[in-house]
Every structure is written in C-alpha cells, then in structure tokens.
Amino acid sequence: MTSIALDAMGGDRAPAEIVAGAVMAAADGVDVVLVGERDQLLGELDRHGAELPIVNATERIGMGEDPARALREKPNSSISVAARLVKGGEAGAFVSAGSTGAAMAAAAIVIGRTEAVHRPALASVIPTPAGAILILDCGANLEVKAEHLLQFGVMGSVAAEVFFGQTSPRIGLLNNGEEPGKGRNLERDAFKLLSESGLNFVGNVEGRDLGADKADVFVTDGFVGNIALKTTEGVAAMVATMVLDAVSSLSDEVVEQVAKAVRPIRDRLDYENTGGAHLLGVNGVVVIAHGSSGRVAMRNALRMARDGMERDLVGRVRDQLTAIERERNVRALSP
Amino acid sequence: MTSIALDAMGGDRAPAEIVAGAVMAAADGVDVVLVGERDQLLGELDRHGAELPIVNATERIGMGEDPARALREKPNSSISVAARLVKGGEAGAFVSAGSTGAAMAAAAIVIGRTEAVHRPALASVIPTPAGAILILDCGANLEVKAEHLLQFGVMGSVAAEVFFGQTSPRIGLLNNGEEPGKGRNLERDAFKLLSESGLNFVGNVEGRDLGADKADVFVTDGFVGNIALKTTEGVAAMVATMVLDAVSSLSDEVVEQVAKAVRPIRDRLDYENTGGAHLLGVNGVVVIAHGSSGRVAMRNALRMARDGMERDLVGRVRDQLTAIERERNVRALSP
Asked: Is there a smaller number of Cβ atoms within 10 Å at the N or the C end of chain B?
C-alpha cells in the first residue's frame, strides 16, 4: 500500500511530462504506478529507457467537462481508475494534474471521506520568503459552517506537520481585521471554536499576512480561499513582470546579473516547486498538481504524496479530528 | 459647495503631513477647509507660510475606537464636524486619513445615503501595469445580496468614469472561475442581474485577473474585497522585498541602476499615489486615505475629491441607479 497511483493522462502536458516526472521520482525511490492508455505510456517510457508498472485506462476526462457527469459517464477514465486503486488498497496515494474538479470528486466519491471528517478540503501550498504556508479550503466547499473551519484548522495543522515537518504549526483564521470580533458570523463563531481547540491558534490574520510569516496555516472558506490564492499568483506574476521590464533597458551585463539574482525568487514563487494542492479528509493521500505541470512539478507532487503516506497523513487526520470531536462532546455535556 | 472638508486630525501622521498635503493641493487650486484643533493647525500653517480656512473641532477619534460609539460620544470630533459641513452644504466633499470605520459611519449616518442606493460601498484603487482598477466593496458590507452587487457595479462604473476618465468601463464579477454558473448562489444571481443591466459587463473574473487588464471594476462583497485588496498589498510588498534583497549583493553600481529602474514600479504600487478609497453611494464625495498617508497621498486624495465634485459623482450615481431600478421595475411588470 505504499505505491502511488498517478493519473498519467491528466494535465496540459500529459502524458509526456507526467511520465518524465514519474521516471525522475522513481529514480529517487518513489513507488509509482502509471494509470492511462497503455500503448502511449509504453512509448513514453521507451524514450527514457525506463520501466514502470502500468494500469490501463482507456478514457480521459477533459479540463472543461462537468466533473460529476464525466465520472459517471467515463468509468474507465484515468482519474476514475486511479481513484479505484486507492479505494481497493492497491495504492495509498493518488496524484493528478488533470481536472481539479474531477480529481476532487473522484477522491470524495470513490476513495471516500475519512471517519470524523465532515467536509474534505483543498489545501494549497504558497511559497513565502520564510518557507511556505498552507491555505485551505481553496475551492472544495464554497460555503461552510464554523465547525467546518475548525476541522480545516485541524487538517491543516496535521498537513503542515507532515509536509513541512513543522511542530505545532501556527493556525490563523483569514479575516478582514486582526481584532477578535472581526468578520462575518462565520468567522466570529469559528474564532471561538479554534480558540478552544487546543491547536496553536494565533487568531485572526489578514490578506497582507500571506507573505508575512504570521501563520503557517490560513483557514477560510473555499470561495475566499480560491480568491486569495489566485490573487497571490496573479500579483506575484504581475510584480515579477514589472521588475524584469523595468530592468530590461539596462546594459546586457546588468540584466544578466539581475536575472541571476532574481531567478531564485522566481523559482520559489513558481508552482513547479510547490508540489501542488492536497485534498485533505479522504481515505488516501491525494495531491492535485497544476494543470500546466511539467516534469519537475510532477516529481515534487509524487515526493509529497510519498511523504504523506510514510508519515501517515490519513491516520493522523482521523485521530486528531476524533480526539477533538470527543473533547467537544465532553465539554458540551459537562455542567 | 465646491470646497473640501478635510479631517486634519486623522491619520498616523496628523496633523503635520495632512496640513502639508492640503497646502500642496491648495497651491494646485483645490479649495480646502481644514477641520481640527485651531491652534495646532495655525501652527502647522505657519511653517508653510500659508493661510487656509479652518473650522475648529476639539475632539479626535482614535484608530482603535468603536466607530458608532465614538461618533455618538464625540460630536465635536474632526470627523463628525467635517461630515456635518457636507451635510449642511458648506462643503461638497469629505476627506479623511483617520479611522476608516468612523469615516464610513459618519458618511452614512451624517451625510446620508444617496436616493436609490441600498448600501454605500467602499471602492479601493489598485494600481496595475495597465493603469488602475477599482475593487468594491472593500469592507463596508461584509454580507450582501445580489441586488447590492448590481448596485456596486453601477456605482463602480460611474466612479471609473469620474476618476479614471474611462468611457464604458469594463465591469467584472470576482468569482472562483470564469465560466458562467461559477460561484455561490450570490454570484450566480448577481451574474444574471449584471448581464441584464446595460453595464459593460465582461462576466466573471478571477483573483489572478487583478493585474491582468481584464476589467476596470471588480465587484464583490465587502469580506472578499477586503481579503483580495490586502492580499494584493501584501504580495506586492513581499515580491518587491524579495527582489531588492536578491539584488543587494551585487555591485553598488548595479544596485543603483536597478533601484532606479525599479523605483517607478514601487511608486506605482505605492498607495501614496493612488489617492485612497472612495465611499460611493452617499450624498457627498468621500475619500478615505490610508492611515499612514503623508503629504503626497493627501494631495492626491484632495485632487480626487475635487475631480469627484467637478464631474458630479454623486448626481451621476443617483441618476444611473434610478434609471436601472426603473428599468428593472418595468421588466418585472411586463408580461
């Protein structure tokens, strides 16, 4: 159960770059099973002179398709088959750069929710000067209740431990101000629940704190999380472009030196190096990479999936949530 | 009624920088009335050898105070007195770098809503490579209905015409995806209303479009708008810092050249040059500047206030909203 079912047909650059990333990860000792059209995948493996196990899947779900419908009508899609490998215990993790909606739906429907989880959530990794943060939910649940935000905090805390190696990660509630009492009813209720949770809750955090090392995990609903995540990507790209344009009129030598100095930043802000988003709260490790992922992004996504399995992400989410729900029930019953 | 009531006591750097900005604006022909503690303001004017009309206000509302309570308990605060000047017709605009909450509350309660406006909204200016965009609401209304988002679209359209000189500004609905049908019930309903509004509605826009010249006005609720705005500020600052750090190890000559090339970007992204946010939908032009505003920011805020008066922001908002509401009623009655 330590192998990873990789949707080899999902993503703008599939299958060539997906297979190339799998070959790189396999060389690092990651146990990958390719899921997709066998003949195409054999052809790709040939180019690398590599051998990897293949599970045949004859259909493919496109980016524009309605997720629920596509899953129903294409039971032999690479996404469906890969999810079933996890459900059946033949794999412990599922990685895809295909349709985020279809991958999330397959994980929730086929693999299934973890015991004690109300709503699985999509946690995205954002690189920052201090390292990286997780923000969740980023789009799995557009409208939620305070109890769900509490669970997102717990799952995010476990994920930050597992993927970043942090002890007692700082959990922040994304809000429109720092003071307690800020926000909608949702945030005010969630603030109370998070305060009582035993998590390392640092209180409300704002949009401007996303790059400011105030929290390791930013908790919010899926609509707000999606807007914050995409705003981050858009503004980072905008500023990087503005800087390179501004510098381009200087001498070739200066441009070269600047480009060399700025490259590590671009690399840090590049999703290629973040490894993708994690669907937390399902009975398997699920990593959803960017649609435009190349081989480096896929290798990183596969490494993260392996870390998630080795460090028992699923079991720890289940145990922590069960403990917290038990504690809440005890408190509710106490006089 | 063409003078601007300036809260000279509001802001981290009041009154010195506020008065300095007023003196600069007055030299440009802007008609400013200083509102605040007379003796202090006379002392500040003396430094510049300038004379400006003063209306005495003996109290001051601090940044941390509860807005509604502060307004009730401090009727002689500079914010209250300035708002009453607009209410009484002695000024046509109100500018403050003080507490955003208190300034918004004073505008809504004292100056009052414009006819046909359901909810006043805070529109912030974000500079972009292509110019600038408006995003509203940025915090006046955390939870809204679809009809409110329609009105925000109308008010934002008028404001973009008035402040940016745009004809037929592009109105986008901030959403978690581009396709129609995306979003919460709120966005799906608002999409329909905006489509039928006669505005230049370009459909759904995403967080990553904030710097991408896809729309001139981004419409959303006050919670999401606040998060998106502050995320933009935070990420822009983060990337600028990372770039300057990366370059700092190069030779002095290169650093100097790069700093010179990058300065115009920093200036563009600097709130000092944006002139602040606009509270739309009240019976006067209201500009709320950043709390940390210096003289340049204040001069720009005062210029924007003057533009708003000269180009009849208030009357145009009222007329456009009235026309659109009439049109909706006619449609609702037609068979």
From this structure: C
